[in-house]
Structure formats: C-alpha cells, structure tokens
Write a structure and sequence with these properties.
The chain is α+β, with helices and mostly antiparallel strands. Helices cover 30% and strands 24% of the residues. The chain contains four helices and nine strands; from the N terminus they run ββββββββαβααα. The strands form two sheets. Strands 1-8-3-6-9 form a five-stranded antiparallel beta sheet, covered by helices on one side. The chain has a four-stranded antiparallel beta sheet with strand order 2-7-4-5, with no helix packed on it.
Length: 206
C-alpha cells in the first residue's frame, strides 16, 4: 500500500529493531511486477530463482539467480519478471536508524552519505563476479539468521549487516556525496521532495 506520492506505508521490522526479511514470489503481483514505490528504508534483494528486471528511477538492470542488488533510500523502484517467468527473491529492508541514532560517527560517516546522494539509485552484486561472492554469502547469512530463535540472533544479524554495509560502502564511496550541508545538496533534496509530492498533479503555467 502506498500514499499519493507512491511512498510505501508498510512498516519494516519494529521501531526497536527496524529490519525485515521476506521471501517473495513475483507471481503474487499482477503482471508479475511489483508496483512503483519508494520508502525511507534501504533494501537488498537476493534472487533465489528466475530473473528480474529491476528499475530505479530511469536506471534498469537484469538480475539472475544468485545476484543481489542494493537500492537506496528514497529511490522510486519496481521489479518485473523477465519473459513472464516467475521469480523468487529475498527482500532485506532496513531503516537508517538500524545503524544508530543520527549524529553518531557511524551514521554521519557511513550512512548519511547514501541518504544525501539522491542520484545514486542502486548497486548490483553479481554471482558471476568473484569479488562479489563474499558479500552475497553475508547477505545469505542475514536471510538465514532472521528466522532463527537463537539467543544471539539480533547480535548476529547486526554483525552481518555491518559487514555487508562495509563492503557496500567500499564499492560505492566514489558515487556518494560527502558534502552533507552544501546549498546544492539542500536544493536537490527540495526538488526531489517536490516532485515526489506533486508528480501526479496537473501541469499548469501558474
């Protein structure tokens, strides 16, 4: 469910542990495509079977079994099965607050740069690329840990997510904005917020 700006209204995880993991069949959606939407959370998709054509804003990529993709907070995105053949995948969704309260060194140095990079939409991890395989194994571990009842479950998930984020940060750092408070960054955020709020309104010359 979304609001008029296509912002997803579903809560992911809980306020005390804002992360969720779900196993999804694209065939659950009409036309084997989940609707365009966006949310404040970061998200990883890990393809289990089939193929998905993933689109964020105007960028598109095809994901094969074993591939994964990270997409950024605020990115308008959708995913569709290739050739109308079903695709199954794990979705790992986590709020920026998962890493700690805003203002901490961890948040400011490693999380905020993603939130402050409105034109950075996604990063793909390919199963065929040897350098990506440790990252994919870590993501698989997060998915497996989520449904366990181990006494250290939350600690183990947090540890694996930090390792996952470290690898993501090193891969993407050259594409991120580190000038958090520049007037240009603020201007871009205002523009994107206006578009998300008014994209479905009639265009006028007023």
């Amino acid at each position: 469910m979304t609001d008029q700006t296509l912002r997803q209204l579903q809560q992911h995880g809980t306020s005390s542990f804002p992360i969720s993991v779900s196993f999804v069949y694209l065939s659950e959606y009409k036309g084997m495509q989940f609707p365009h939407h966006w949310h404040d959370e970061f998200e990883f998709l890990l393809i289990h079977s089939g193929q998905m054509r993933y689109t964020a804003n105007i960028e598109s990529v095809v994901l094969d079994p074993g591939d994964a993709i990270f997409f950024n907070s605020g990115a308008l995105h959708t995913g569709a099965a290739v050739a109308l053949k079903d695709c199954t995948y794990f979705a790992v969704t986590l709020h920026p607050d998962f890493f700690g309260m805003p203002g901490t060194a961890l948040a400011e140095n490693y999380i905020t740069p993603f939130c402050d990079s409105p034109f950075f939409n996604f990063y793909k991890f390919a199963a065929s690329r040897e350098a990506d395989r440790p990252v994919l194994r870590t993501l698989e571990s997060v998915c497996a840990l989520y449904d366990t009842q181990d006494v250290c479950r939350d600690i183990d998930i947090y540890t694996h997510v930090l390792l996952l984020w470290r690898a993501l940060f090193l891969c993407c750092r050259d594409s991120l904005s580190f000038d958090f408070y520049s007037s240009e960054s603020e201007r871009l955020h205002k523009m994107l917020a206006y578009i998300k709020t008014n994209y479905n309104q009639p265009i006028t010359l007023d």
